[in-house]
């Protein structure tokens, strides 16, 4: 696994990298900047380039001259854990994204907090600290420069950290909970794989109230998929086919007049009784019904009838469990 860290000035990229090295067994990879890339942040003196590759710090580092060397290095050692903060531009990123062992993580923090951090770094290295106005200009250049701006990198990160931590202990605690090195971030396990298929099926829903998708599985093979909406040959719900949904009725009100078929129903109808046997598993965004040989139901989102549904499933001998994948997208790092 290679975790690449990008982000704004003084957001905590180096702190996250050091955490991964010291507490998660990662090794640091350093990539020399391309000739066309500005190293303005390092030139200002807070962190001279390659200071994080200093072998006197007692940590293992590997310094490479170009991105192809880095790609070759991690390809031959893909079972080891690596981290780099040297994602200099989109050309570097594109080459790294070709490797299935690569995960891009961005780190950001509130502007005022980053300014305070930057001033502290300047003081510790006997450098003049910028005013807030100067720091804002530096930040804008770092993020939005037409050639080297980091905003385009940040936008492509699978995990986007907001580092509001006030000290390293707080940061480490929240990173422990997040579990960045989780291998499911690179290759989903079976639960995550089938749940993502259910979520994809939900995009085909035509229901005006809620999108729900479902996947019926046996022996890790997809039998059928379904999504909620009006029956075949009837006008779609989002075209006015279901009066109850289009009138915006409250949850639980007028259910007997709703024409939309549940995603689970459609998956079961599509499969047919002859294709459903004991051991079949139903994956669904939310769940309300299951029958005809279903042994287990896996769902991702809670629903207003969860307790009643769980009781019915327990009586029928159907195992019910909720699946929670590793967190991704925007994650705020702060203790609760």
Please give a structural write-up.
The protein is of the alpha/beta class and 336 residues long. Residues 39-51 and 54-59 have low confidence and may be disordered. It is built from 12 helices and 12 strands.
Write the topology of this structure:
Layout: E1 2-7, H1 13-24, E2 27-31, H2 40-43, E3 61-64, H3 67-76, E4 82-84, H4 90-97, E5 102-108, H5 111-124, H6 132-144, H7 151-155, E6 159-163, H8 168-178, H9 190-202, E7 213-218, E8 221-227, H10 243-246, H11 263-271, E9 280-284, E10 294-299, H12 306-315, E11 319-322, E12 329-333
Parallel strand pairs: 1-4, 1-5, 2-3, 2-4, 5-6, 6-12, 9-10, 10-11
Antiparallel strand pairs: 7-8, 7-9
Short description:
The chain is α/β, with parallel strands linked by helices. It is elongated.
Shape: elongated
> Stretches where pLDDT falls below 50 for ≥5 residues?
39-51, 54-59
Separation of termini?
29 Å
Query: Rg, please?
Result: 25 Å
Number of helices: 12
* Adjacency order of strands in the biggest sheet: 3-2-4-1-5-6-12
Strand content is 15-25%
